[in-house]
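Work through this:
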Amino acid sequence: MPMDDGPITPALVLWTAKRVITQHSEPASAHRATGRCAQCRDDGCGMLAWAIGVVKAHRVTA
């Protein structure tokens, strides 16, 4: 039986987006060669693009 992690709220989406942006600016560490996430590719990161869009949309509506 799948577990339900609860509702996906706007606050959770915004928090996740801010975390993605923060993760991309963190310095490299022993377990990550770069400060970027595992989704990053040479042509850009889809997660980072999504996160920036979420934050921008939130600023427009706030």
Summary: The radius of gyration is 14 Å. Helices lie at 10-25, 46-61.
